[in-house]
Structures are given as structure tokens and as C-alpha cells.
Automatic annotation (TrEMBL):
Organism for this UniProt entry: Microcaecilia unicolor
Top-tier EC class: isomerase
Residue span(s) of domain EF-hand: 190-218
Name of the protein this chain belongs to: peptidylprolyl isomerase
Molecular function GO terms recorded: calcium ion binding; peptidyl-prolyl cis-trans isomerase activity
InterPro entries: EF-hand-dom_pair, EF_Hand_1_Ca_BS, EF_hand_dom, PPIase_dom_sf, PPIase_FKBP, PPIase_FKBP_dom
Length: 218
């Protein structure tokens, strides 16, 4: 139990989890996502941006007959969905439609087929379908690969993560739980992290190699 929770956490931090890409590859540049703000909270400190972890409920409708094809409230005991914005976990139209959104905000987002399920459709979605989503955003938090996480790992602040720095970070994180360490598994995790992130093989994970979500700040 202990190990599996920690492992998922590390895998998220280093983005080793496979991300599912939905939707069509082809894109008609002339078609755009239409965003209508239905409710805007009075206060908004943090607007959603690429790489953030969002928590939201949404209902999906077909534009041509208004029928509902999806409702997150009727799935998973009605818990709102968690996903990382801007990395292909949702269709392209939703990625665009949920940018710069405040926690507590409600939007109606109309998505052309080229930014949804395209000429083929998918499941309940017929070919060439324009989709309408009503979205209520609950929370915006920094994603697993945030700038702050990178800075925390990069102890000497040289914008590169060495093996020692990553190992230190993993150890500290394990220690937080007050549980015994499993050195074999930590080494295996470390190997895997460098295999998948150190693209030029120089033994260091640079800010660029880490920055899969392309934050502006790094
Ligand atoms: Ca460093
Ligand atoms: Ca490198």
C-alpha cells in the first residue's frame, strides 16, 4: 500500500504515466471553440493554465439535437474529474475551453468536430458532431511537474537535476511517511526516471527535459 501510493506520486512527478490522447489529429484552423461564461466568482486568485491539475464536473451535449451524451456526475459516485490541462488528457476543444478559468467558474463551451471527435465520431458521438459542454470548475492546483517541484529538487539551483538531487528528493519524500525505506526499489525508480527523462544521456535532467508541459516560467 505504502509503496504503491508513493510510486504513483513519483510516476506523476516524472510523467512516466502514459497519457491517453483522444480526438482527431487533423485540425481545421478556421474552426474555433466558443466560450460563454455562465458564472464568474467574485474572487479569482489563480486561473487555470497548461500543466495545472483541474477538478471539474461537466455535462456533454450534442449540438444538433441537444441530447446529453456524457455526465461526470453520474460516474464514479459523482466525484468531479481530475485531469492535467494541456497534455492531451481531454479533447482539444476542452483544453482550449478550460484555459484561464477560475475555480468556481461555470462555462458553456461549444466545440467544432475538428477539435472534438472529428469525421469518425466515437462511441455515442456521431461523425462530424459539434459538442457543447457545460463545465463547473472546482479547483485549480499546480500539476505534478510544476516549476516549484523542479526548484525543490534542484538543490544547487543550477537548473539541472543530478542523480543525487533526485535521490535526495525521493528519500525525503519517503521519510515523510515515517516508513522504512526500500533501497532496491528506490534505485529502480531512479534508473527509470533517468532513462525516461534524461534524453541527451548526460546524466542530468535539464529544465528543458523536465519541462514537458512547457511552463513559461522555466
Ligand atoms: Ca542541480
Ligand atoms: Ca540531460
Amino acid at each position: 500500500m505504502f509503496f504503491s501510493t508513493k510510486l504513483i506520486c513519483f510516476l506523476q512527478i516524472f510523467n512516466l504515466l502514459t497519457i491517453h490522447v483522444h480526438g482527431e489529429k487533423t485540425e481545421d484552423a478556421t474552426e474555433e471553440v466558443k466560450i460563454e461564461v455562465l458564472h464568474l466568482p467574485n474572487e479569482c486568485d489563480l486561473k487555470s493554465k497548461r500543466g495545472d491539475l483541474l477538478n471539474a464536473h461537466y455535462d456533454g451535449y450534442l449540438a444538433n439535437d441537444g441530447s446529453k451524451f456524457y455526465c461526470s456526475r453520474s460516474e464514479k459516485d459523482g466525484h468531479p474529474k481530475w485531469f492535467v490541462l494541456g497534455v492531451g488528457q481531454v479533447i482539444k476543444g476542452l483544453e482550449t475551453g478550460m484555459m484561464n478559468m477560475c475555480p468556481g467558474e461555470k462555462r458553456k463551451v461549444t466545440i467544432p468536430p475538428s477539435l472534438a471527435y472529428g469525421i469518425h465520431g466515437a462511441g455515442k458521438i456521431p461523425p462530424n458532431a459539434t459538442l457543447i459542454f457545460e463545465i463547473e470548475l472546482y479547483a485549480v492546483t499546480q500539476g505534478p511537474r510544476s516549476v516549484n517541484t523542479f526548484k525543490k529538487i534542484d538543490l544547487d539551483q543550477d537548473k539541472h537535476l543530478s542523480r543525487d538531487e533526485v535521490k535526495h528528493y525521493l528519500m525525503e519524500d519517503f521519510k515523510k511517511d515515517g516508513k522504512p525505506r526500500d533501497l532496491v526499489r528506490e534505485d529502480w525508480i531512479l534508473e527509470d526516471i533517468f532513462k525516461k527523462n534524461d534524453h541527451d544521456g548526460n546524466g542530468l535532467i535539464s529544465a528543458k527535459e523536465y519541462n514537458v508541459y512547457q511552463h513559461d516560467e522555466l
